[in-house]
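Example for reference:
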Amino acid sequence: MAREIGVSAEGLRNWVMQDTIDRGQGAPGELTSAEREELRRLRRRNREQAETIEVLRKAAVFFAKESDR
């Protein structure tokens, strides 16, 4: 079947497994496609917020030094 649609057997197996999970028939703890996407989005947002916090921390240090002069 995989050859007929032009994908590897492993790729087709992964698609079928993910579809099973997405329909709520996966093992406990397995993430649906929507959950995986949300996790990616939240990790990206967390990374961006950590970068913002670091910039603000450096700015606070800079301005604290400037106010001591």
In short: The chain is about 75% helix and 0% strand. The mean pLDDT is 95. The two ends are 74 Å apart (CA to CA). Residues 33-67 form the longest helix (35 residues).
